[in-house]
Amino acid sequence: LIKKMDTIDKSYQRVRTDLAAAEQGLSHASSSLTEIKAMAIAMATDTVSDTDRDATAQTIQGFMDQLINTANRQQEDGRHLFSGIAEGQAPYTIVGAFPNTTVSYNGSISSRRVEVAPGVKVDATVTGSQSFGANGEVFQTVSDLITALDSNNDAGIQASLNALDDQMESVVVNLAALGTRIRALDETNQITEDLKIQYMLSKADVEEVDVTAEITRFTTAETSLQAVIEVSRRMMSNSLASFLR
Predict the structure, then answer these.
(1) What is the spatial distance between Cα 45 and Cα 48, in angstroms, rounded to a whole number?
(2) Which residues, in sequence order, are CB contacts of 88 under 8 Å at separation 6+?
(3) Which of 4, 109, 212, 216 lies in the 20 to 30 Å Cα band around 162?
(4) Which of 35, 110, 32, 34 is nearest to 68 (CA)?
């Protein structure tokens, strides 16, 4: 049971690391969308020039690239965080060129299940649909905004504002759900750790000696040995004295 607990703990550590990295990625995505929304608001007026909108479109394209890099993030062993069970491949690819790009999802719609406590399994991976929309709506919204800015489309820019609000809310909800998974995982692990301690104590009762009793026995034996040594020393001294006389 203790060996099983050790194996489960390794699984927990790996899942915890992956989910924490995914949480960090979604938090970064949320911040990026907030900045994109601020730039979109600034461009949604009649006072800005075509040149300003073109420059902003280029800037937002940079944020788009960052979002894609976040969504395609890999762990040190090469696994992709947001691919679900298809961890060996990047979940998102960009189709087309600036300013008309779309994003396709290559990951799975299901997550890998891992045992993190005796009899308890959790989703150990995160899918793109759980993070950036079932069909990559987060990326599509940003892409539509870039196209609208580049083409100086006032109506398209205004429509993107509402769409950005929806996607920002979606990312926040997904981020909160991921945080809840992590907290539940930590609570489960604490119960597992307590259970492991109980197993170790039970093992100690069976295999280990009573230290207090052994110390007492050893002290008594040591005292007896010292007494024997002292008696032997005196007898040897007396025998030597008799021989010399």
Answers:
(1) 6
(2) 78, 79, 80
(3) 109
(4) 32
Bridge partner list, 117: 120
Helices 154-207 and 2-43 cross at an angle (nearest 10°) of 160
- 153-176 tens-digit pLDDT: 999 999 999 999 999 999 999 999
* Distance (Å, whole) CA 73 – CA 81: 6
Q: pLDDT, tens digit, for every residue of 184-201?
A: 889 888 888 888 888 788
Nearest CA-CA partner of 174 in 235, 206, 139, 130: 130
Q: Please, are residues 91 and 80 in contact by the beta-carbon 8 Å criterion? A: yes
Beta-carbon contacts of 192 under 8 Å, excluding residues fewer than 6 positions away, are 5, 8, 9, 12, 116, 117, 118
Amino acid at 50: D
pLDDT at 243 over 50: no
Binned at pLDDT 50, 70 and 90, residue 117 comes out as confident
Mean of the per-residue pLDDT values of the chain:
85
Exposure on the CB side of residue 197, measured as CA atoms within 13 A: 6
Place of tokens 């010292």: 226
| Pairing between β-strand 113-117 and β-strand 120-123 as defined by DSSP bridges | antiparallel
Dump the DSSP string for 192-210: HHHHHHHHHHHHHHHHS--
* pTM tops 0.85: no
Q: What is the largest CA-CA distance in the chain?
A: 129
For residues 215-221, average pLDDT: 68
